[in-house]
Amino acid sequence: MTITLGEKWNEALEQVKLWARINSPWAIHFNSGSCNGCDIEILATVTPRYDLERFGVKLQGSPRHADILICTGPVTLQARDRLKRVYEQMPDPKFVVAVGSCAISGGAFQGCYGVVGHIDQVIPVDAYIPGCPPRPEAIIDGVVKLLGSLKKGPEEQRSGGEEVK
Amino acid sequence: MENEKREKFIVPIGPQHPALKEPGHFEFTVDGETVTGATVRLGYVHRGIEKATEDRNWTQNLYLLERICGICSHSHAMAYSLGVEKLAGVTVPPRAQAIRQVVAEMERIHSHLLWLGVAAHEAGFDTLFMFSWRDRETIMDILEGLTGNRVNYSVNVLGGVKVDIDAERADSIRKGLDLLEERTRHYLKVVTTDETFLRRTRGVGFTTTEQAEALGLVGPTARAANVARDVRVDVPYVAYAEFPVTMTLDTGGDLEARFVVRIKELFESYRVIRLILDKLPAGDLTMRMPRRIKEGETVSRIEAPRGELFYFIKSGGGEKPERIKVRTPSINNFALVTGTAVGHQLADMPMILAGMDPCFSCNDR
Amino acid sequence: MTIQATNVTSAAQPDAPKGSPMQLLAQWTKGIKTPEINRLDILIDAADMLACVKVLTDAHWGYLIAITALDTLGKPATYAQDVRWKALLDAGATQAASSPIEVLYFFANGPQIVTLRMLLAREAATISSLCGIIPSANWYERELIEMFGITVVNTPDPTHLFLPDNWPDNVYPLRKDFKIEQISSTKIEDIHE
Question: 3-state class of B312 per DSSP?
């Protein structure tokens, strides 16, 4: 059975979806070779001092329930396929945040034999948060900026990102 | 029917799993809810740092090795610096050594509080997780004020330290420690008296002293089984000879004992930091280091928050090391999971795993 | 005992105290070095390794800290005077013995560290497994297998511990002749697949 909605209804539904997405994005965290520094700072953002949950962001265990993929670390040979798989398991629309120098450029681990590269060589990234590691404030700022950009049109949302083949 | 019963049922966990923040893959063979076998597959965080050190010079390696682990970064940098200084024959000023010890103990505080929270989270006790991480921010503030960064402090340079502690800074550290000490007393009470929590910890993951020794456990995990191994006491490095710590031992051997040992170690850390702040030796912070390190081999052992950290450093007399071997405490302690998992409920696995305080980025390197 | 790190003394140690590793291992010792305070390097033949470890563990002398290896490619001079190297040469492994792989077993007892050091021929690096005596040695042995290409006989689990599943065969990253290009084909191909 298919329900066909009028144009107005469709528009309204899209708005409700966008409102829900901005107000309660669920995030999943994936470590693809990080030193733990960024990971503990991400965890610190959900604890009482920084409390990311006041923006409705919830750290979540399963990729199938998540809207935002928070990636840390350079991508190692062994983690690369897992990172791709986690990304593919997430329902659309999905957004990727790369946290830390290593996730952005490979950082201190450039040239190590186990490192493939940085996150956006493997999956498209929507927001970059620099730092080694970034402070929790910076992580919150990055996530809030990403949420802000969601309010814009779909073309601007995905600037820079491309589909994984 | 009989054959079907004998078939193994394997529960794979990981590499991406909600329980831990790091990727590792476990396979538990189960019979109903009871675990009958366990294997670990590491390597998801393997970057190849040992090889990479051979392509970088002595100073660059300090920053690379610090990033083996974001939780015990100071331990790695300190073990490496101590080894290289020994090879070069440079004596580091006592003030620098004392500051290294202060930061090392602060790192232990932040690491143990972090672990307390994560382990409580595994037990489903999220209130304790939130509380301990809130209080952990106190020590993070102290570390940030002292070193300028919350996680990779970069306190060490080859031949000394970068940061100094003045009277004003010492006062703010003391204030922070007072608060932490009071909170830690509360946590000790919680983990030893909370009925529900004790049901998850008492008797779980039990090892006898002999088993712990045979498994090669190190650090608080071993000390909770009454194995007297603590590098700070056995081979005092930096300033541990002048400002000694006492070893915290417990005869329990189970998860509860691991909680108790780690929390009691916190008190020891508070005490020794205060002692050093009161009697901080005067003098320089750094010594000049040569660019090329004399040919030779050395070992460097220190007590990281998770246990004995071992570095083997070989220099060929050049600007780059010939070989650096890093043996991290977690790799020894993983034997605890594979060794004690059998016979436990599957639901206890996250707790046993958390009880050894695994650090995947440390042992994958 | 204060001997220069570079000097290798003769094997006989009649004055060593009873129960010390020096005395326990005297019959297998091919040479002794004391590079630093509290450290003792005992040079042995790979064939005697199990016997040496057995004696140490039976005497409850310390615990195994680590097993690692050194690739000595391009440094044959280091071994010019070494009896173990001469033995390798005599065994006919001329090409291989020109750059042996040295395996190191570290044992610690309080502040003291004893290192058992043995040389293996490069092309046929084989050593017995320690797991029968010390089960936890398996972690390090798996590392020796994948990082240095050493065959460990009778080890219960020879699979990859750290290296990825798609790692090419016969490429050993911690050997000195390892080049990053040896694995670059896998890397690039997969990113653009």
Answer: strand
Q: What is the DSSP letter of C76?
A: G
- Cβ contact (<8 Å) for C178 and B43? no
Strands A95-99 and A127-129, by their bridges, are parallel
Per-residue pLDDT tens, chain B, 365 aa: give them: 445 555 678 777 777 665 566 777 777 888 777 888 787 778 788 888 888 888 888 888 998 898 888 888 899 999 999 999 988 888 889 899 999 999 999 999 999 998 888 888 888 888 888 899 989 999 999 998 888 888 888 888 888 898 888 888 889 999 999 999 999 999 988 888 888 888 888 888 888 888 888 787 888 888 888 888 888 888 888 888 888 888 888 888 888 898 899 999 999 999 999 999 998 888 888 888 888 888 888 888 999 898 889 999 988 888 888 889 998 888 888 878 777 777 788 778 888 888 888 888 888 87
ipTM score of complex: 0.81
pLDDT at C92: 62
Closest of B100, B359, B40 to residue B218, by C-alpha: B359
What are the residue ranges spanned by the domains of chain B?
48-330
**Owning domain of residue A40:** 26-152
* SS3 category, C186: helix
Largest Cα–Cα distance in chain B? 78
Enumerate domains of chain C plus CATH numbers.
21-191 (3.30.460.80)
Task: Tell me which chain C residues have a C-beta less than 8 angstroms from the C-beta of B234.
Answer: 110-111
Chain-chain contact of C180 with A76 (C-beta, under 8 angstroms): no
Q: Which of A78, A111, A122 sits opposite C165 (nearest CB)?
A: A78
Residue A111: pLDDT over 70? yes
Q: CB-based contact (8 Å) between B124 and chain A?
A: no
pLDDT confidence of residue B7: 65
Residue A95's CATH number: 3.40.50.12280
A24-57 burial: b if 16+ Cβ within 10 Å, else e = ebbbbbbbbbbbbbbbbbbbbbbbebbebeeeeb
Of B23, B134, B361, the CB nearest to A49: B134
* Best residue of A113, A120, A121 to probe chain C, by most C CBs closer than 10 Å: A113
Statement: B48-330 belongs to CATH 3.30.1120.10: no
Within the 63-122 window of chain B, which residues sit less than 8 Å (CB to CB) from chain A? Answer: 63-64, 67-71, 73, 114, 117
**Which candidate from C108, C161, C173 shows the least CB-CB separation from B48?**
C173
Taking the CA of residue A63 as centre, how many other CA atoms within 13 Å lie in the half-sphere pointing to its CB? Answer: 22
**pTM of the complete model:** 0.85
Using CA coordinates, name the residue in chain A closest to B18.
Answer: A61
Q: Whole-angstrom Cα distance, residue C70 to residue C75?
A: 11
How large is the greatest C-alpha to C-alpha distance in chain C, in angstroms? 67
Q: Looking at the partner chain, which of B18, B55, B152 has a beta carbon nearest the beta carbon of A132?
A: B152
In chain B, which residues have their Cβ closer than 8 Å to the Cβ of A133?
A: 70, 150-152
Best mutation target among A28, A39, A40, A65 (most B Cβ atoms within 10 Å) is A40
